[in-house]
Design brief:
The structure holds three protein chains of three kinds. Chain A is mainly α. Helices cover 80% and strands 0% of the residues of chain A. Chain A has one domain. In chain A, helix 5 runs antiparallel to helix 6. The longest helix of chain A is centred in the C-terminal third of the chain and has 44 residues. Chain B has one domain. The longest helix of chain B has 31 residues. Chain B starts with 9 loop residues before the first helix and ends with a helix. Classes of the chains: A mainly alpha, B mainly alpha, C alpha/beta. Chains B and C meet through helix 1 and helix 5 of B and helix 2 and helix 3 of C.
Chain lengths: 240, 234, 235
């Protein structure tokens, strides 16, 4: 089986370790900057309070989880084309991280709802509701993966990664459309009206979450590649 | 040479498969009868769930109808490959020169037919059970939404039932895979129904929801065509 | 038309990590009938299913009826006839209805006439309208035979055919295999019944643990000699 990691393993280094390290450093720096910036430096919204600032991360994490699922969808397409296990590694890791981030979206969203409206849940926040659906969509991915035998697992995971990602915009749009008919007033979350300094810290938090995602992805991939290499060795010994 | 050198026309293959599914259903009547019965029971349970505290459930019409239809759809879709599975005939289909997409289309057409039969019962029944006010004038509009939704249900349902086919605990896996994907259909269906029932003649809303369903169908059609080969490609 | 109906080089198939077929080479020439024998778990059925394009090789190359698998699998399927343990028929439909379905799937011209003809040959005309569910095992396997031959396939792939066919079915199959030689068709027969091979095959391939351990002509050899050769190969 072709492997791009054999040269590195020969020299004793863990495959992908350098990339993970670099991104880990970048992520740590950006997350620190973002946290400090968002909670201390960014202008405070008059009647909102400190907890409100979680909103920056709430949206950033939401965006990055979408990126994760998009990566998984592309990885799924590439797996079906090439049938190379590398793409299954990427897709599976991306979905795990996307799930983690999506759950965080729901949690941070709930905290923000409590701070804004006094309740831990609202059905009127399209983002919160949509991410609940997204969590359910991708939870099904794990159920599917564990219920299918080895020979079909990667293939079906790839197909579901594609189908699930198609469900995401459909869920978004339908929740939004339904909401707008019931609550015609659009909640201003500062879209285009966001003052420059807020926008800056918003962008910083997105960059931080993105770097974090990439770093975690690299770490996950190291684990999988190593496992795969070990399995190859074991098989070679068995079949010899 | 003894081989037929021409490719069989897909219309003939599709017709043969649909005819086979309908013949099987006519002979056994297992699926459609159970679906209709299930839908009626669900509507009744809904009444007991909501109606004991509230005399007038008119404003829940859309929701009641579409929740019922969604769960009935899961039941029907779960039966999609039952004959092939229990009677081990799938190999016969897979070794024949049908494009896998034709198999998808045949199963989807069967689902549309079954759901339509269920709706012929459910749509009037919902009016009789729950609606106080104008309803029968809007039946045409409701039927149109139902038809669009059936196509959406058939496309995503057939994809997920294909995936569930080779899983352990497939009767449990299918709802887990399928229901999240049905959420947008329920939202749109209930919304559109709500927009035309009990005097609310909100045609702009109705149109928006219908267009959404068309978009859903197109998107899932693309996903199916792109991935259906891989479902059976062992 | 190529000379080789089947050409496999180094094909591999695995269920997860477990290798079922390991670097197998196999050729089937026009007019040739190849028997594949071996102990349980040798990978014979898996190899047959790969040739039938039901399974995709994980590695190696496989060409069936001139088409590279899996890319050209759909074209290859036009000329493949497959007989397995299960009759591949819908139990709640009649033999005629089942054959009608397959005639549509394969685009068989003059389907009605061909179906009547085959039902007659497998001696099922009397029961042609009864649901397959009420037929005996032997009868449903005869139906399977009819299904296999319906579209006049050039390559016959048989998985332990003699295990489930009754006497008249066996006679019909043997006659068909006998004619295959002259017609320029080919066959691959997976079998446990090593003694039978002499009657129906030109070549014997022996598999053990996913690999081919013997591949030689057996035309003209007696059953005892073939059995001895087989035992020697799997030792």
């Amino acid at each position: 089986m072709p492997s791009s990691t054999t040269e590195k393993t020969r020299s004793g280094r863990v495959p992908g370790a350098r990339a993970a390290l670099i991104w880990g450093v970048i992520a740590t720096v950006l997350v620190t900057v973002a946290t400090v910036g968002v909670f201390l430096v960014a202008p405070e919204d008059a009647d909102q309070g400190v907890i409100q600032r979680i909103f920056y991360f709430h949206v950033a994490i939401a965006l990055v989880s979408l990126v994760a699922f998009a990566v998984a969808c592309v990885a799924g397409i590439l797996y079906l084309r090439t049938r190379s296990a590398r793409w299954d590694d990427v897709g599976d890791a991306a979905i795990r991280l996307g799930m983690l981030f999506s759950v965080l979206v729901v949690i941070t969203g709930s905290i923000w709802a409590k701070a804004s409206w006094g309740t831990w849940w609202v059905w009127t926040d399209p983002r919160l509701v949509t991410y609940l659906i997204v969590v359910l969509i991708y939870a099904a991915y794990f159920v599917l993966r564990s219920s299918v035998d080895d020979d079909r697992r990667m293939r079906y995971a790839a197909i579901y990664a594609i189908a699930g990602f198609a469900s995401v915009p459909l869920s978004f749009y339908s929740v939004r459309v339904a909401n707008s008919f019931v609550h015609p007033v659009v909640f201003t979350r500062g879209g285009a009206a966001m003052p420059g300094s807020m926008l800056f810290w918003f962008v910083v938090s997105v960059a931080a979450m993105l770097a974090l995602f990439i770093a975690l992805l690299e770490v996950e991939l190291i684990g999988r590649r190593t496992e795969r290499a070990l399995r190859r060795v074991a098989l070679a010994l068995e079949n010899a | 040479m003894s081989t037929a050198t021409n490719h069989p026309r897909w219309t003939r293959q599709l017709g043969g498969l649909v005819r086979k599914d309908l013949r099987l259903e006519l002979r056994t009547k297992e699926t459609v009868v159970a679906m209709v019965l299930f839908a009626v029971i669900t509507l009744t349970i809904m009444q007991f769930g909501f109606g004991t505290r509230d005399d007038d459930l008119t404003r829940f019409t859309g929701g009641l109808m579409w929740v019922t239809l969604a769960f009935t759809a899961v039941l029907g879709v779960g039966r999609s490959y039952v004959a092939e599975r229990e009677q081990r005939v799938l190999d016969g289909l897979l070794v024949s020169p049908i494009p896998r997409v034709v198999l998808l289309a045949a199963k989807a057409i069967a689902i549309v037919i079954y759901m339509t039969i269920v709706e012929v019962v459910v749509i009037p029944l919902v009016g009789i059970f729950f609606v106080k006010g104008a309803y029968w004038d809007s039946i045409g509009w409701i039927a149109l939404v139902a038809l669009l939704a059936n196509v959406c249900i058939a496309l995503s349902g057939t994809l997920f039932s294909g995936l569930a086919l080779f899983t352990r605990a497939r009767d449990l896996i299918l709802p887990v895979l399928f229901l999240p994907a049905l959420v947008p259909v329920v939202i749109a269906g209930a919304g559109a129904t709500h927009a035309v029932v009990a005097g609310a003649n909100d045609m702009a809303d109705y149109r928006g929801y219908c267009l959404f369903l068309v978009g859903y169908a197109i998107l899932f059609l693309l996903v199916c065509v792109a991935t259906y080969d891989a479902v059976f490609d062992d | 038309m190529p000379d080789l109906l089947v050409s496999a080089r180094g094909v591999v198939h695995a269920y997860g990590d477990r290798r079922a077929v390991s670097h197998v080479d196999l050729d089937v020439a026009v007019g040739e009938r190849v028997a594949i024998a071996g102990p349980n778990g040798a990978g014979k059925s898996t190899l047959l299913r790969m040739v039938a394009t039901l399974l995709r090789p994980r590695a190696g190359s496989l060409t069936v009826l001139g088409e590279e698998v899996p890319k050209g699998a759909r074209r290859a399927r036009m000329g493949i006839g497959y007989l397995a343990h299960d009759p591949l028929a819908y139990l709640d439909l009649s033999p005629r209805q089942n054959l009608q379905l397959y005639a549509d799937l394969y685009g068989v011209p003059d389907a009605a006439g061909r179906i009547d003809d085959l039902l007659d040959r497998v001696d099922l005309t009397a029961r042609a309208e009864d649901p397959v569910r009420v037929l005996s095992r032997g009868m449903s396997q005869r139906l399977a035979l009819a299904r296999m031959l319906l579209h006049r396939p050039q390559l016959l792939l048989l998985d332990e055919p003699h295990a489930s066919l009754d006497a008249s079915g066996t006679a019909l199959l043997d006659a068909e295999l006998g004619a295959a030689r002259a017609d320029g068709r080919g066959a691959v027969i997976v079998t446990h019944e090593v003694e039978r091979i002499a009657q129906v095959a030109d070549r014997l391939v022996v598999m053990r643990a996913g690999r081919v351990v013997a591949d030689e002509p057996v035309a003209g050899r007696g059953p005892a000699e073939i059995r001895a050769r087989y035992e020697q190969a799997i030792a």
